């Protein structure tokens, strides 16, 4: 993969620069541990199982919250586009919730569901549902009238048209919305775990920071960054697969 | 099914009586698109609706298709009031309206699935119509991979596959280049002669209307009315038809009718 290697060359240069500025003493190790130390600490966390244990907790919360948001948001957005009455009832709610900073819900979800998985899943669900709903709604509304009419004249009933035409028409926008929601999932996940949790990568970052184990803390931050990167790549790959007909 | 009046020389396939239609956009003025339009079409007739843009010719087509509600007047298909869209009235749009996420084969099979045909029968019939429109070898292509002409062939195959008695065509060749359009016109005539369907063909191209239709309905603009119905009566078997004096005279005759309307619109 020479192309990929060239593409990610800047990342490699950044890593080398990181190592260099610390080794040359340009930045204190108190502020920025050397990359080598960070990787070593990360290896330690991985061997002791702490990384996986907390990683699984986070992955579970993120996946559950996002999956709920995608399913319910997708259904709601498409329903809003298809049935006027649904739109009349739901649109004002969506509009009101849209600008709300979702992190403000952290204390609320903790109050309702406590310190465990439930509050994180609810938070991610609530936070991600709005962008998914809006994307599904916009996508469904962009369905071409002539496609709908074609399906009708070929013998599809109204509900059938919803599934055969409106849903696939909504897919490109919906997948875009899911990608946005995926990024938001990581934001909400880590910040909620940092504030109130007894497990999870965000919790681990906060815990290690409090203990002053900065190289290990940086290792977890890097790990979260890589998880986010891979999740995004996976989402893109899925999008290309699903929308193969567009090329 | 039988007509109430005894004076009609043929059984009517499509009977449009005194139909008006008003568009009421959410914002802006209401537009009277059609006013008191009446039109009778016999089985297997090929009728062109001709007129400047804004004359309501597409609106009339959509009303016959059941895509828009008939609010004033009446439209009957074989004696029964026009109902929801269905496979008895196939439609072909200017911009093809193929399902972009389906291959050519899946597009053509779509209506056959809805008819509840067995899978092998679906495949057989789809292939037959794909071959008929000359798309053999492109069955697995997606619409985005096809040229405009091929897309319209695919759309035509999809519509023909459900074997509608009535074919509604909404400027079907308007988005094609001149050469492709000419080729498609010839092929449509051949298909029409082979399959014997009633065709309503919307166009603003006078030559096209004269070349294809048995009768040309010239419409006036704003509001859309039937200005004149011109029988064509040319020998379509003649391969050099477009170069004959009779063809030229018919085009001129209809052109003068249309030009009055074009001038009025400006």
Q: In words, what does this structure look like?
A:
The complex is a heterodimer of chains A (247) and B (266). Chain A is an all-alpha fold. Chain A is built from eleven helices and no strands. Chain A is globular. The mean pLDDT of chain A is 93. In chain B, strands 6-7-8-3-9-10 form a six-stranded mixed beta sheet, sandwiched between helices. Chain B has helices at residues 57-65, 104-114, 119-132, 148-161, 178-195, 206-212, 245-265; strands at residues 14-23, 31-41, 46-50, 72-77, 80-81, 89-92, 166-170, 198-203, 215-220, 225-231. The relative contact order of chain B is 0.17. By secondary structure, chain B is of the alpha/beta class. Chain B has two domains: 1-88 and 166-266, Rossmann fold, CATH 3.40.50.300; 95-163, no CATH class. In chain B, α2 (104-114) runs parallel beside α4 (148-161), α3 (119-132) packs across α4 (148-161) and α6 crosses α7.
Give the topology, please.
The complex is a heterodimer of chains A (247) and B (266).
Chain A (H helix, E strand, L loop, with lengths): L1 H6 L1 H15 L11 H14 L1 H33 L1 H14 L8 H8 L3 H25 L3 H9 L4 H38 L5 H11 L2 H29 L5
Helix pairs in contact in A: 3-11, 4-5, 4-7, 4-9, 4-10, 6-7, 7-9, 8-9, 9-10, 9-11, 10-11
Chain B lengths: L13 E10 L7 E11 L4 E5 L6 H9 L6 E6 L2 E2 L7 E4 L11 H11 L4 H14 L15 H14 L4 E5 L7 H18 L2 E6 L2 H7 L2 E6 L4 E7 L13 H21 L1
Parallel strand pairs in B: 3-8, 3-9, 6-7, 7-8
Antiparallel strand pairs in B: 1-2, 1-4, 4-5, 9-10
Helix pairs in contact in B: 2-3, 2-4, 3-4, 6-7
The number of domains of chain A is 1
- What's the domain count of chain B? 2
**Tally of individual helices of chain A:** 11
Radius of gyration of chain B: 19 Å
The number of distinct helices of chain B, counting runs of at least 4 residues, comes to 7
Examine the coordinates and then state which fold CATH places here, giving the name of the CATH topology of the largest domain in chain B.
Rossmann fold
Main CATH class of chain A = Mainly Alpha
- Helical proportion of chain A, percent range: over 70%
């Amino acid at each position: 993969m020479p192309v990929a290697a060239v593409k990610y060359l800047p990342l490699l240069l950044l890593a080398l620069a990181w190592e260099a500025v610390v080794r040359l003493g340009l930045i204190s190790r108190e502020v920025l541990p050397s990359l080598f130390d960070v990787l070593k600490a990360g290896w330690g966390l991985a061997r002791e199982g702490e990384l996986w244990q907390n990683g699984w907790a986070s992955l579970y919360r993120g996946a559950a919250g996002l999956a709920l948001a995608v399913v319910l948001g997708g259904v709601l957005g498409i329903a809003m586009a298809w049935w006027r009455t649904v739109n009349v009832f739901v649109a004002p709610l969506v509009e009101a919730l849209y600008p709300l900073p979702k992190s403000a819900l952290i204390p609320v979800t903790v109050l309702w569901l406590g310190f465990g998985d439930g509050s994180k899943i609810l938070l991610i669900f609530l936070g991600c549902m709005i962008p998914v709903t809006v994307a599904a709604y916009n996508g469904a509304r962009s369905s071409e009238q002539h496609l709908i009419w074609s399906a009708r004249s070929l013998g599809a009933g109204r509900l059938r048209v919803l599934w055969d035409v409106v849903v696939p028409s909504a897919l490109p926008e919906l997948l875009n919305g899911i990608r946005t929601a995926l990024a938001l999932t990581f934001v909400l996940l880590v910040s909620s775990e940092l504030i109130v949790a007894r497990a999870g990568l965000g919790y681990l970052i906060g815990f290690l920071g409090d203990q002053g184990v900065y190289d290990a803390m940086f290792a977890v931050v890097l790990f979260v960054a890589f998880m986010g990167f891979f999740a995004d790549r996976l989402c893109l790959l899925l999008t290309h697969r699903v929308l193969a007909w567009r090329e | 099914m039988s007509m109430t009046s005894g004076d009609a020389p043929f059984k009517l396939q499509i009977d449009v009586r005194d139909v008006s239609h008003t568009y009421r956009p959410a914002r802006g003025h209401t537009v009277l698109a059609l006013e008191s339009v009446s039109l009778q079409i016999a089985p297997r007739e090929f009728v062109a609706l001709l007129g400047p843009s804004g004359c309501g010719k597409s609106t009339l087509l959509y009303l016959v298709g059941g895509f828009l509600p008939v609010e004033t007047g009446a439209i009957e298909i074989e004696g029964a009031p026009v109902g929801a869209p269905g496979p008895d009235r196939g439609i072909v749009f200017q911009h093809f309206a193929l399902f972009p996420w389906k291959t050519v084969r899946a597009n053509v099979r779509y209506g056959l699935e809805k008819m509840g045909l067995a899978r092998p029968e679906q495949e057989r019939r789809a292939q037959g119509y794909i071959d008929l429109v000359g798309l053999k070898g492109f069955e697995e292509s997606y619409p985005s991979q096809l040229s405009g002409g091929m897309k319209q062939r695919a759309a035509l195959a999809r519509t023909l596959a459900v074997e509608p008695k009535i074919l509604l065509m909404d400027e079907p060749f308007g988005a094609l280049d001149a050469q492709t359009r000419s080729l498609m016109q010839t092929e449509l005539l051949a298909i029409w002669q082979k399959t014997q369907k009633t065709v309503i063909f919307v166009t603003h191209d006078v030559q096209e209307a004269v070349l294809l239709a048995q009768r040309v309905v010239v419409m006036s603009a704003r509001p859309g009315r039937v200005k004149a119905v011109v029988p064509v009566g040319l020998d379509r078997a003649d391969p050099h038809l477009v170069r004959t004096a009779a063809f030229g005279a018919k085009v001129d005759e209809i052109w003068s009718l249309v030009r009055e309307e074009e001038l009025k619109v400006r």
